Amino acid sequence: MDFTVEPEFQKKLDWMKDFVENKVRPLEFIYDYDKDAAYDIKNKPLRKIIKRLQQEVKEQGLWAAHLPPHLGGKGFGAVKLTYINEMFGTSAFGPVIFGCQGPDTGNMEILAMFGTEEQKARYLQPVLDGDMFSTFAMTEPQGGSDPTNLRCVARRDGDDWVITGDKWFASNANHAEFMIVMTATDPDAPPHSRATMFIVPTDAPGFEIVRNIGFWTDSPNSGGHPWIRFNDVRVPDSARLGPVGEGFKVAQSRLGGGRLHHAQRTIGLVKHLIDMMAERAVSRFSGGKPIAEKQAVQTMIAESYIEYMQFRLLVLYTAWMFDQQEEHGAQGRKMISAIKAAMAKIAQDVTVRAVHLHGSHGLSNIMHFGELMAVALHEGAADGVTELHLANVSKLLLREYTPRLDSNLPSETTFIKKVWAEKQLKPILDELGLTFEEGHADTEKNPPVEKYNLKPVSL
C-alpha cells in the first residue's frame, strides 16, 4: 500500500490549502443563507464569483479530480483524491468550487457508465463543465434505508413511462435542472429486480416540490433537501438509464464512491474542529492558567486527534482498495460500510467535544456549531443509517469464519490448546534432544483431547 505524496503533488496541496482558506472559506460567512447558496443558480452575482474561482482551480489542473481523464479529470486515483477532498472539506463551498459536489459526482458516474451518447451530451457535459446541477431521487418518506420498499412507480405507456409517487430529502432538487429517479417498474419482481432509473427534467409537467426541507438550523420551509412529488410525470423511454429492472445495479455504481468522497471531506472537517479546539485551549484562561493545562481538556483533544488519525488511515486504506478496483467485492463493500459508520461517529463525537470546549461561545449563534452538528448527525442517516452499515460490516466479516462443529468448547480453550501446542512443538524438541519436562513445560496432564470435544446437542 502506497500513500506517498510526491513533491509535485504536494505543491498542488499547498496551493489548495492557501486557496481554500483565503478565497473559498470566506464565501460561507457571507453567502451561507439557507445553507445551499453554493447551488443557487438564480444568484447571478454569486455565480460569477464561483465561476471566477472555478477557473483558478481549472488552471491548476484540479477540476473534477474524482473523474478519469476521458471525462475531464486528471485520473489522480482515490488515494490522491483523499488528500484533495480533505483540503476543501472545511468549506460548504469547497466541493462546488472544485467540481466535486454531490449529488452531481455520483450522477456523473451513472451517466458516464449507463448513459447514451445523447444523454451524455445533454446532461453529463453541462454538469462536468459546472454549468448545471442535478439531484438523485431514491429515498422515500416511508422507505428510510430500505430501497427495496419503493412506492414511487413508473408504468409503461406505449413509448413513454408515467412516474407517480413521492421522493424525500432529494438534495439540491430546488436548484437542479434534472434528476435521476429510482422507480419501481415491476413491484411483483424479486426485491432487487423491481427498480429502473430515469432522467427527469425538473421542468417536466407534473413535477412538484411539495416542501423545501432543511436541517435544524435552516428556517422553516427552506433548505436544500426537498420533499418532491411526481404527479403522473411522463418521460420517453429514451430517458431510461440502464436496462429495465436493473436500477439497483445502476445505483451501486454511484453509492460506494459517494460514501468515500463524504468520508474524505470529513477528514478535513474533523481536523478543522481539532484546530479550533486547540486554539481555544491555548487561548482561554481559567484560574490564571490556560485551559490547555486542564487534564480533561487534554483528554478531549488527545482522543480527538487519535480518532482523527485512525479515521484518516482507514479512509486512505479504503481509497487504496478503490485504486486496486476492489470496491465492488466483498472486502471493498465491507470497508465502504466501515468508513461510513466511522465517519458518522467521529463527526458527531468531535463536534460535541468542540462545542463543549468552547463553552457559551459553542452554544451561541455567533459560531457555526449548530450547522456542523446538524451535518454530523446527517452523516449518520444519509446513504444508509449507521446501524445498517455496522450490520453490513458484521455480516461480511462473519462470512470469513466457519463454525466449530466438532465441539461446543471454544477453540482457544486452554486444555485443548495445550495438547495442540505440545504436538506442534514436539518435533523441535526432538530435533534439539530436549523434553518438555526439562524445560519445566506446563503440558496437559490429562489427554487425550477427544474426550473434551463435547459436540453440540441438536435442538
TrEMBL record:
Its cofactor is FAD. Keywords: FAD, Flavoprotein, Oxidoreductase. Residues 245-395 form the Acyl-CoA dehydrogenase/oxidase C-terminal domain. Residues 439-448 have a biased composition (Basic and acidic residues). GO terms for molecular function: acyl-CoA dehydrogenase activity; flavin adenine dinucleotide binding. Residues 135-211 form the Acyl-CoA oxidase/dehydrogenase middle domain. InterPro entries: Acyl-CoA_dehydrogenase, Acyl-CoA_Oxase/DH_mid-dom, Acyl-CoA_Oxase/DH_mid-dom_sf, AcylCo_DH-like_C, AcylCo_DH/oxidase_C, AcylCoA_DH/ox_N, AcylCoA_DH/ox_N_sf, AcylCoA_DH/oxidase_NM_dom_sf. It comes from the Bacteria. GO terms for biological process: fatty acid beta-oxidation using acyl-CoA dehydrogenase. Residues 439-459 are annotated as: Disordered. Pfam families: Acyl-CoA_dh_1, Acyl-CoA_dh_M, Acyl-CoA_dh_N. GO terms for cellular component: cytoplasm. Belongs to the acyl-CoA dehydrogenase family. This is Acyl-CoA dehydrogenase. The lineage of its organism: Bacteria, Pseudomonadati, Pseudomonadota, Alphaproteobacteria, Sphingomonadales.
